[in-house]
């Protein structure tokens, strides 16, 4: 009896975790695609930023104006990695970092370029 419960519990946990992982990756891809395709609509991109990132951007001026001047990517999604409440999305011309908030996934950093193996990315848009 204990063994059956243990196996059933493990199977349920795997099913739930697997399902959640797929759902998160789909949600992350949807948000990243919307962000990338809004290359002519900085207002939409501002709405997709995490609150701390939006606050940091607005220190330099109105969000729409600041984002319009930055080299944000608009390419296709080429890779997604989700680690719990954080995600990285590689576009064909940019790398985005996303965080899960109470409002769903939001972009926490954009216009990011790698600085080398095991070094943090340098991002033009990020929370301070």
TrEMBL record:
Residues 1-25 form the signal peptide. Keywords: Signal. This is Lipoprotein. It comes from Blastococcus colisei.
